[in-house]
Design a protein that fits this description.
Strand order of the largest sheet: 1-6-5-2-3-4
Shape: elongated
Number of strands: 15
Radius of gyration: 25 Å
CATH class of the largest domain: Alpha Beta
Helix content: 40-55%
CATH superfamily of the largest domain: HUPs
Largest sheet: 6 strands, mixed
CATH topology of the largest domain: Rossmann fold
Oligomer: single chain
Number of helices: 21
Length: 423
RNA sequence: GGGGAGAUACCGAAGCGGUCAAACGGGGCAGACUGUAAAUCUGUUGGCUCAGCCUUCGUAGGUUCGAAUCCUGCUCUCCCCA
């Protein structure tokens, strides 16, 4: 399958430089996407980029993952309305290490078009300021750089020289990849267009080459908010940071209106199957959503993780699930539930002495962030212990409430469920 | 270097000496309705030992019985002139 055709069909092309089509017809080519290690793990926001690389590789091309060991130290002003806090070198190194390993799951690092990981810190490590200013800074005028949207917006609100320089780094990165790896294509979100064209400009002027770029439309949600954030922050691809259960729930709780985009951006099913899903969105959004959630949970985590999440989700969200079903659960099932949903440990002795519900929510666990909030939630009829709504903020929980002498289920609202394990 | 404007809770934005934990909008959270969706309606949205107290209106001081509101220094941002 032709790469551009594939993207076109999925609606993943925003713009591209002239001649990109011809380049891609020309046998195996090398293309890259950059990732700055500003977060401890890749997120589903990054997953759009990962999909691009994957589709690129599936089409027979060679993907380069460019880790931003250098650019991460600077901070990209694109799409940011204010100057960013710089992360420490230690933190960035650690993130880079972790994220690099995550790619193993999504791309093929073997074979004729094996993916490779390059760190752009290598391009700058041995360069001093004067070299940089002469070799890199001389290529573009400040006038040209300032006319980029990403910079223009920030000239109103303030932009440090550091962040202003970011596009020089990204442009020079492209040049280095071009000369060292014969990389002729950069793919990325449309907010990066300015930085990319600086890159093709570098290659044209400095090494007399021709490089190309494709951008994808930024994935936005129907309600206008940014894709990839849940109420409680980022959805990470690492199971330690976002459990498979939460990951699965994220897709299941997605807005119907976003479903078509999600299928087109994230599914790797054969085209006929994808089309069948798309066709069924209107009549049966719930089952389509479930299938997408399944596909992604299996791919990002594992089949086993999905099975476990599914059984737990069905148990917890089953319409008929009431106090009796909960009490009827055997200990193994409860243990599985405890593994999947967020859980907290407390001392058995402490609980035996009786714990006030407000303290339990806000102090012994972080189900609520303050006691005031806990009280409000109780007043608003949001808190349930073992499927029983709590009406009184003086309510005390003690050992008699424990299921199988060990577990306690606490719900905040209908969707946020927690297990407290005593030990 | 000179002149002007500004910094308010998650964001935007009122307030300009007491009745201000601070209007209003957005966002968040919860309740009802639903499909663990959307839309809609309702409640709530600094902390606590909660009819009271404590900490918050860039920062440090000062005036006052009393300051987000007045004065001074400082920091930062934006605009104009050189």
């Amino acid at each position: 399958m032709n790469f551009l055709e594939e993207l076109q069909w999925r609606g993943m092309i925003h713009q591209m430089t002239p001649g990109t089509d011809a380049l891609l017809q020309d046998g195996m080519i090398t293309g890259y996407i950059g990732f700055d290690p500003t977060a401890p793990s890749l997120t589903i926001g990054n997953y759009v980029q990962i999909m691009l690389l994957r589709l690129f590789q599936d089409a027979g091309h060679r993907p380069i993952i460019l880790m931003g060991g250098a650019t991460g130290r600077i901070g990209d002003p694109s799409g940011k309305d204010k100057e960013r806090e710089l992360k420490s070198y230690d933190e960035l190194d650690h993130n880079l290490e972790f994220q690099s390993r995550q790619f193993a799951r999504f791309l093929d690092f073997e074979g004729p078009n094996a993916a490779i990981i390059v760190n752009n810190l290598d391009f700058y490590r041995d360069m001093n300021v004067l070299d940089f200013l002469r070799q890199v800074g001389k290529t573009l005028t400040v006038n040209y750089m300032s006319s980029k949207d990403s910079v223009k917006k920030r000239l109103e609100t303030g932009l440090s020289f550091t962040e202003f320089s970011y596009q020089l780094l990204q442009a020079y990165d492209f040049q280095c990849l071009y000369t060292q790896h014969d990389c002729r294509l950069q793919m990325v979100g449309s907010d990066q267009w300015g930085n990319i064209t600086s890159g093709t400009e570098f290659i044209r002027r400095n090494v007399d080459g021709k490089a190309h770029a494709v951008t994808t439309p930024l994935l936005t949600k129907a309600d206008g908010s940014k894709f990839g954030k849940s109420e409680r922050g980022n959805i990470w691809l690492s199971p330690e940071l976002t459990s498979p259960y939460q990951f699965f729930q994220f897709w299941l709780k997605a807005d119907d209106a976003d479903l078509r985009n999600y299928i087109r951006y994230f599914s790797l099913r054969p085209r006929e199957e994808m089309q069948a899903l798309l066709d069924r969105v209107d009549e049966d959004p719930i089952s389509v959503k479930a299938q997408l959630a399944e596909e992604l949970t299996v791919r990002v985590h594992s089949r086993a993780a999905y099975e476990s999440v599914l059984s737990v989700s069905e148990l917890l969200f089953n319409k008929k699930a009431n106090r009796d079903t909960l009490l009827g659960l055997d200990e193994t099932s409860l243990a599985t539930v405890a593994q999947e949903i967020p859980s907290f440990q407390i001392e058995r002795d402490q609980l035996a002495a009786g714990i006030n519900i407000v303290d339990l929510l806000a102090e012994h666990t972080s189900i609520q962030s303050s006691k005031g909030e806990a009280r409000r939630s109780i007043k608003g009829n949001a808190i349930a212990v073992n499927k029983e709504k709590i009406k009184d903020h003086e309510y005390r929980v003690d050992a008699t409430a424990l299921l199988h002498g060990k577990y306690l289920m606490v719900e905040n609202g209908r969707k946020n469920k927690f297990i407290i394990v005593t030990q």
